[in-house]
UniProtKB/TrEMBL annotation:
It comes from Siccirubricoccus deserti. This is Flagellar P-ring protein. The basal body constitutes a major portion of the flagellar organelle and consists of four rings (L,P,S, and M) mounted on a central rod. It is found in: Bacterial flagellum basal body. InterPro entries: Flag_FlgI. Transmembrane segments: none annotated. One of its GO terms (biological process) is bacterial-type flagellum-dependent cell motility. Pfam families: FlgI. GO terms for molecular function: structural molecule activity. The gene is flgI.
Length: 363
């Protein structure tokens, strides 16, 4: 929390002037997007770290089918197949917008069976399908996991995930997803973070140079009129325009990791905060009492009990005046010695009291 307060002071805190950004950094053109591809393939050449063919039935069937397509008959001896140098994998990729046939894309490979390491393997030709079932790319190449895995008789070490790998430029686009700007009379900009004020500011910025061109239709969408204009030149011009995006007052809390993120517009009404609990610690440290060698007596255990009471008296009730900012809120809670875990409970209590003027999102 102290580091967060330091960063706020470094960048001027919430009172600093908001920075303008380019339209291209906060909005996308509707229809211009990636398409997800998926395929099923085999990775060969593994050093005994592949699937067990006796348990991974789909890997064995895939191996038999592949060999038959290459003219090798293994149906009669299918039961005897016992190699561990092959693994069944799922292959995924994103087909970028305007990717043309022959373009190359990156490929992700993930083990499907009980393979333990894909390092050193080679992915065989794998068709990649779109949501419509058509083949849009073909993948093949040597996989790279970037992971380290070593195992001995009594110890093992692993860094990264050796069953997931990537192939840089391992896919070749076979079919494009058609989308043309020419001949279109209208286009729409889609804001990545929907906000009515930001959409209105984008429309105003565009209309300064071309009146009547842009209209904010909802918090996410700005409609553009392209009648009589070259779409490419017009879009290249407006994407460099700068606007000042607005944002909601929001507090995002991720309880699993204790992470708290608060927007600059978060405000707190007048509220008193007291944080601390009574803690009693009882510690048993028994000691052994042993007589001198020539003295009569016996060795006994003497109990020693220590009791500490921590009522956290050094922590006082803090009062936050109405309308305090994010930086003031963090500074006030730091003065009470509040950690991230306690801060989560305090923010929830402030929200329940109606003093937190922001939306709270729990994850």
């Amino acid at each position: 929390m102290a580091a967060l307060a330091g960063l706020l002071a470094l960048f001027g805190g919430p009172g600093a002037a908001a920075q303008s950004v380019r339209i291209k950094d906060i909005a996308d053109i509707e229809g211009v997007r990636d398409n997800q591809l998926v395929g099923y393939g085999l990775v060969v050449g593994l050093a005994g770290t592949g699937d067990r063919l006796r348990t991974a039935i789909f890997t064995r069937q895939s191996l038999v089918g592949m060999l038959e397509r290459l003219g090798v008959n293994t149906r009669d001896n299918e039961v005897r197949l016992d190699t561990r140098n092959i693994a069944a994998v799922m292959v995924t990729a994103n087909l970028p917008a305007f990717a043309r046939p022959g373009s190359r894309i990156d490929i992700a490979v993930s083990a499907l069976g009980d393979a333990t390491n894909l390092q050193g393997g080679t992915l065989l030709v794998t068709p990649l399908l779109g949501a419509d079932g058509e083949v849009y790319a073909v993948a093949q190449g040597a996989v790279a996991t970037g992971a380290i895995a070593a195992r001995g008789a009594a110890a093992s070490i692993q860094r990264g995930v050796p069953t997931s790998a990537r192939i840089a430029n391992g896919g070749i686009v076979e079919r494009e997803v058609p989308f043309a700007f020419s001949g279109r009379n209208t286009l729409r900009l889609a804001l990545r973070n929907p906000d009515l004020t930001t959409a209105r500011r984008i429309a105003v910025a565009i209309n300064r140079g071309a009146a009547g061109t842009a209209t904010a239709t909802d918090p996410r969408t700005v409609a553009l009129n392209l009648v009589g204009r070259d779409a490419i030149s017009f879009l290249a011009g407006i994407e460099q325009l700068r606007v000042e995006p607005d944002m909601m007052a929001r507090v995002v809390i991720e309880e699993a990791s204790g992470t708290i993120v608060m927007g600059a517009n978060v405000r707190v009404s007048t509220v008193a905060i007291a944080q601390g609990n009574l803690t009693i610690r009882v510690t048993e440290t028994p000691q052994v009492s042993q007589p001198n060698p020539l003295a009569a007596g016996e060795t006994v255990v003497v109990p020693r009990t220590g009791i500490e009471v921590d009522d956290q008296a050094e922590r006082r009730v803090g009062v936050l005046n109405g309308g305090v900012s994010l930086q003031e809120l963090v500074r006030g809670l730091n003065s009470l010695g509040v950690g991230p875990r306690d801060l989560i409970s305090i923010l929830q209590a402030i929200k329940a009291a109606g003093a937190l003027q922001a939306e709270m999102e729990l994850r």
